[in-house]
Amino acid sequence: MDLSAINPVILIASLMAAATPILLAATGELVVEKSGVLNLGVEGMMITGAICGFAAAVETGSPALGFVAAALGGAALSLIFGFLTQVLMSNQVATGLALTLFGLGLSALIGQGYVGIKPPGTAALNLGPLSDIPVIGRILFSHDLMVYLSLALVAGVWAGLRYTRAGLVLRAVGENHDAAHALGYKVVRLRLAAIAFGGAMAGLGGAYLSLVRVPQWTEGMTAGAGWIALAIVVFASWKAPRVLLGAYLFGGVAVLQLNLQAAGLAVPVEVLSMSPYLVTILVLVIMSADRSRAAINAPASLGRRFHASS
Amino acid sequence: MKLTSILAGAALALGLAGAATAQDKTKVGFVFVGPIGDGGWTYEHNQGRLAVEEEFGDAVETIYQENVPEGADAERVLTQMALSGADLIFTTSFGYMDPTINVAQKFPDVKFEHATGYKRADNVGTYSARFYEGRAVQGHIAGKLTESNIIGYIASFPIPEVIRGINSAYIHAKKANPDVEFKVIWAYTWFDPAKEADAAQALIEQGADVILQHTDSTAPQAAAEKAGDVYTFGQASDMAEYAPMPRVSSIIDNWAPYYIDRVQAVIDGTWESDDTWDGIGPGMVGIGEISSAVPEDVKAEALALKEAIANGDYHPFTGPLNKQDGTAWLAEGETADDGTLLGMNFYVEGLTGSIPQ
């Protein structure tokens, strides 16, 4: 075994790229859950975003338009969920699961003609001399635009929820929708907006997979990333900075296990392959060990139905 | 894929009306492990299917199903195909071995052909290609091209076919360049572009400047292209869209002649269960064009090696060779027998790491 072959600087740089899809999706889901809605359809929205973005990028030749289309596709799909749960008041858990299954099927259908095609390349952002700074340059200034955008979005969501009036209203709706309604806030409209935002973010995450990380379209290519994103929101106890931490932790373990294998670590490959999931479970258990605190952090109205008459 | 199965179901529902026409047509089924657009393994099997259609025209009808998981689910797909009237079914991945045998027992009149396996029955034949012959040529080019002396290898499952490939590539890379070192990642998948891309990325980060893959997608090629100065080889299919860099050559599986041959045998009523294992010589394994990124002298050596293997002058597993633990395997001039190769479960001397059990 030769652990010196693993360069920590490059490892950190590649874990940032590896974590970007789940980071985007988890940040979106955070906003959705903060508004009191539990959307389990993240996986379905991600994969739909992946194919919408891929198709748009291939047809137009522009990765930027691809990402826009991915966000729109994810948002459109999420609004089906929004309509069913907010207007028709269906069960959120069941509807979310159905959305995942629907998204997987829909994306396979749209993707029929796009298998085996190369998408237009997304160039790394050229930050000139900044990228040449040792260590920091490689970690911070050598990525593509989407990595920075994902970080900006996390920061934006954090600041938005904490310091703005809109964020306060959103949190109020999530904590107690009856009180918020009594105060005259449009609960359903706000939640629909949050759901659409979550869908757009999941779509972006999916497109990052199909346009930058792989880059290729394959059925089911998100391979469970949406579920990881859901777990990370709980792991983060509904706080944006911890979402970042959780996503990078998961991405880090996923990248590290491949590197350890290549370095010839004498640990069974099966154990290494399941390690990202084991770490996720472990952290979830530790985080929720203190039941009273976990309950305080969760939005009080999470997953509950709202109707103005009740 | 879905449409085909719906149509097959509909045809079945029509019942006797269809039976009359079905009798004069020979129906050939194909079970694929990935999508036909994977650009690799399944793509080439599908090319073979299309060649069958072209050859026989209206006399033959082909059906296929993509993305069939290896294991119990495959039995369901196979049963459905057999029920829908298939006369001959090709199951094109190692993991379909037991399902093929199980379903074949239930349908003694249907002929089955299983790729890369070793279990046979009266109505189950096996076929495979000597990919390790192509791996030898790859290994030679890789050993000559590498400057970091580190060659990365994305392996799929620890089965003899994959281990043979690693050994063969390593032996010939070592001959071309005594300092060469192999880093192997077991992906435990035939087809998962995201994972293959990550594995390629990890190998590149650890200094590999040549990546060999035994997985089916083009994702590692894309990762190497992004890295810039990394060489790759097309796997199963030519993957020429990545030539001349990073893809410098490839192993191409050419199943068409075999498929046509076997379908003909079924039509003639001469089909018998057998075991076919052909290599470069008969044309089942092709070497894709060696691109301009390879120096002329290396290209000439590689082609000479290919020629020697094709006409039987040289066997890629020729002694003296030791096993990884240092015990003697082949004496000077001795060549490996097919039995050992088919069950190969050890690395040759010089490879580091262990094969997952």
UniProtKB/TrEMBL annotation, chain A:
TM segment ranges: 6-25, 37-58, 64-84, 96-115, 135-161, 192-211, 217-236, 243-260, 266-287
CDD domains assigned: TM_PBP1_transp_TpRbsC_like
Membrane topology classification: Multi-pass membrane protein
Alphabetic keyword roster: Cell membrane, Membrane, Transmembrane, Transmembrane helix
Primary location class: membrane
Compartments (UniProt record): Cell membrane
InterPro entries, per database record: ABC_transp_permease
PANTHER family tied to this protein: ABC TRANSPORTER PERMEASE PROTEIN (PTHR43370:SF2), SUGAR ABC TRANSPORTER INTEGRAL MEMBRANE PROTEIN-RELATED (PTHR43370)
Protein name from the UniProt record: ABC-type uncharacterized transport system permease subunit
Species name: Rhodovulum iodosum
Automatic annotation (TrEMBL), chain B:
InterPro entries on file: ABC-Purine-Binding, Peripla_BP_I, PnrA-like
Signal peptide positions (record): 1-22
Protein name: Basic membrane protein A
Domain ABC transporter substrate-binding protein PnrA-like: 25-310
Keywords, alphabetical: Signal
CDD domains, per the entry: PBP1_BMP-like
Transmembrane segment boundaries: none
